[in-house]
Design brief:
By secondary structure, this protein is of the alpha/beta class. It contains six helices and 16 strands. It has a six-stranded mixed sheet with strand order 5-4-3-2-1-14. Strands 6-7-8-9-12-13 form a six-stranded mixed sheet, covered by helices on one side. Bound molecules: acetamide.
Length: 261
């Protein structure tokens, strides 16, 4: 299976510019590609009103419709982070769009810092979705620091975890290597690049998108500040083997009877 990420810098509030970036996928050949978090809007909102004016319905909004068009035409699946508006509620969401026209939505469960002022916490369950003889799960950015999130996807059978991100903290991408190893799962971390300044707030995003194998090898890695598309071939069924040694299975050996509930 061919999987990849597209690292770029969304332009705040400029949907047309962001759609032009996304349309580059019309020239890409892969089975699955992951785009950054909030790739239709940018990140640093000044108010809920501003976010409300930019957020979109899923699946009827213009960004999801563009993703569906690309997925159908190119016969590929896309995971992309979007600002979602659902019945007036605003979510930091991710869509998984398949070539046959299915759209699955995950709403970010663990909001980071000021996101808490603008977005509502996600209410979708951590799920895995069938695609091409594999199973795909979604996380968004800061979810990386809650091991339960990735573990839940893997307990649902996810073999490839797709993680749109707007990473900021310097250790963020290293954490995803641990998540991959402890779950024996592939992780595609698609981060954004660039500097965003809005009023008094500013953020430098750190790029370094990566694809990690179930044993923690980084098989694709992007730079800190360049727009990049990287695609690799993987044998996704490697993620089915949950044995660390012949006597240790990461799922069966869990001591849920001893864990804090
Ligand atoms: C983040 O969750 N965007 C850091």
């Amino acid at each position: 299976m061919r999987i990849g990420f597209y690292q770029f810098s969304p332009i705040f509030g400029d949907k047309q510019a962001n759609h032009d970036k996304i349309a580059k996928l019309f020239n890409v050949n892969t089975d699955l590609i992951v785009l950054p978090e909030l790739c239709n809007t940018g990140y640093l909102f000044k108010s809920r009103t501003e976010l409300k004016n930019l957020a979109e319905n899923i699946p009827n909004g213009e960004t999801t419709r563009l993703l569906m068009q690309i997925a159908r035409k190119k016969n590929l699946a896309i995971v992309a982070g979007l600002a979602e508006k659902y019945k007036g509620i605003l979510y930091n969401s991710s869509v998984f769009v398949t070539p046959s026209g299915k759209v699955h939505t995950y709403r970010k469960a663990h909001l980071f810092c000021d996101e808490k002022f603008y977005f509502t916490r996600g209410n979708t369950k951590f799920q895995a979705y069938k695609y091409k003889n594999s199973k795909i799960g979604m996380l968004i950015c800061f979810d990386y620091i809650f091991p339960e999130a990735c573990r839940s996807l893997v307990l649902h059978g996810a073999e490839i975890v797709c993680q749109p991100a707007n990473l900021i903290l310097p250790y963020a991408e290293r954490v995803t290597i641990s998540r991959a190893i402890e779950n024996r799962v592939f992780i595609v971390l698609a981060n954004r690049i660039g500097f965003e300044k809005r009023g008094k707030k500013h953020i430098q995003f750190i790029g370094r998108s990566q694809i990690v194998t179930p044993t923690g090898e980084v098989i694709a890695k992007a730079s800190y500040d360049e727009e990049e598309i990287k695609i690799v071939n993987i044998y996704h069924k490697l993620a089915i083997n949950k044995n660390v040694t012949k006597y240790n299975n990461i799922l069966k050996d869990r001591r849920v009877d001893l864990y804090f509930k």
